[in-house]
């Protein structure tokens, strides 16, 4: 399992993913689940993945191969697509095709594979956009009413986002919100694990503005986690019923 979250704010986008992949309690590995594509000054795209590793890796490989193809066109490359909506459609179609191919191979064993993705980005002259791509290839888009999207093991980290994240939230507070959302998930689900990948895309920067790999034992993350736990305990103690 995994947990990935993306925030769409007026000042930019904040993305966070874990890296744990497990196929049982005795088969736990670390794989990157956040991927970025840039044409600096023209467009930036980030994709986060959750679900079957075979599906997500094959999907990302096909998308990257299309980007690197010297004969790529706006119909084949996400770095040449005319709009971010078209990018979401291309990612969705690729994901659905890969899932169908894998399912066909697994059908003899009565098994299947599934995956979902978050696509974030902006092109020159366009608005920032954030999409959640479902396994079937269809998708939904973040809005001012719902300025964040999650995939994977999302239920533990959702309450804090519901309470504090608004389109006007600053990027600094947004980073804190996604990290605390992840901290809640790490504490409640062993299938989500360190290290973490954090990315910030400022509005109109048309590139990834900040990246950070947070390893297990990171002192800053640990201090934040402990401060949040103390704040919750203090708040709990002060409530009278």
From TrEMBL:
Pfam family, one: Proteasome
Keywords (A to Z) from UniProt: Hydrolase, Protease, Proteasome
UniProt-listed CDD domains: proteasome_beta_bacterial
MF annotations from Gene Ontology: peptidase activity
An annotated GO cellular component: proteasome core complex
Record bears the keyword Hydrolase: yes
Gene3D superfamilies in the record: Glutamine Phosphoribosylpyrophosphate, subunit 1, domain 1
GO BP term, pick one: proteolysis involved in protein catabolic process
Protein's recorded name: Proteasome-type protease
Organism of provenance: Paragemmobacter straminiformis
Organism lineage: Bacteria, Pseudomonadati, Pseudomonadota, Alphaproteobacteria, Rhodobacterales
């Amino acid at each position: 399992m995994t947990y990935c979250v993306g925030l769409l704010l007026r000042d930019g986008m904040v993305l966070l993913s874990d890296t744990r992949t497990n196929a049982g309690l005795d088969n736990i590995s670390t794989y990157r689940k956040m991927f970025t594509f840039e044409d600096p000054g023209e467009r930036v795209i980030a994709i986060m993945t959750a679900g079957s590793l075979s599906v997500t890796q094959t999907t990302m490989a096909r998308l990257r191969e299309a980007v690197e193809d010297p004969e790529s066109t706006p119909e084949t490359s996400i770095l040449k697509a005319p709009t971010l909506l078209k990018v979401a459609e291309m990612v969705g179609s690729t994901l659905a095709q890969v899932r169908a191919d894998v399912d066909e191979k697994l059908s003899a064993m009565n098994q299947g594979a599934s995956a979902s993705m978050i696509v974030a980005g902006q092109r020159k002259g366009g608005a920032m956009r954030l999409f959640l791509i479902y396994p079937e290839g269809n998708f939904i888009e973040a809005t001012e009413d719902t300025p964040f999207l999650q995939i994977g093991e999302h239920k533990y980290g959702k309450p804090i986002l519901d309470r504090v994240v608004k389109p006007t939230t600053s990027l600094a507070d947004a980073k804190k919100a996604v990290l605390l959302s992840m901290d809640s998930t790490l504490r409640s689900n062993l299938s989500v694990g360190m290290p973490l990948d954090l990315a910030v895309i400022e509005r109109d920067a048309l590139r990834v503005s900040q990246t950070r790999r947070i390893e297990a034992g990171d002192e800053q993350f640990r201090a934040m986690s402990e401060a949040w736990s103390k704040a919750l305990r203090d708040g709990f103690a002060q409530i009278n019923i």
